[in-house]
Amino acid sequence: MTVSPDIVMSHDNTAAIAKKFKQIGIYKVKHPEKIVIPLDHCVPAATEKYASNHKEIREFIREQKIANFYDINTGVCHQVLPEKGHVLPGNLILGADSHTTTYGAFGAFSAGIGRSEVASIWATDEIWLRVPETIKINIEGEIPPGIYPKDIILHIIGDLGADGALYKAVEFSGKVIRNMDIGGRMTLCNMAVEMGAKIGYVEPDDKTIQWLASRTNRKYTIIKSDADAEFEKIIDYDISGLEPQV
Asked: Which UniProt keywords apply (predicted)?
């Protein structure tokens, strides 16, 4: 289906995307207000080449009048976007980074795409996406001492494999998820791509709403799986006996 994203994210790769954008023959982004650009991968610039890259990005920002720009002193992109209020439940967020799946922790459909795709969205405000089938992963039990969300997701990836959820929407649910803080949910969704998933997703709840309340006053619609939703498969884990994975 052809869709129009709510947010398009790029980071230190923005200069390379800008070159592709201008190769299309279009020199003005269609919706600068939808673009969010944090610099975070090599900050401060460690080489003259990287400093030139940052300079090109800042020039592009000014040229295109992009307001949502976060320079080298702000933080990692996947923390910056939610903390600055750019991530909302029900949003479609696409980014030039494979771990854009992180924002599914807030109930967004959030996926990584290629640089050429980002350039085309800047130009047209559209992209074609295939609707993924959904795998539901229920995580139950009591988290043992010394076990963290990273251990849980590494265990799941180790079990399912690097292509175990290829182009699937992975919905995390269960008691462990309900009790998990927002940071932990972000960890699970961040790593969903490592088993091939198109997106990771956690259904928003009171924790989500409270977390967002101090960061944005924008309205949003929470989208949940229907009571009779059909899943490609449902996988259950009891992590009560899980040992450290690293």
From this structure: Iron, Iron-sulfur, Lyase, Metal-binding
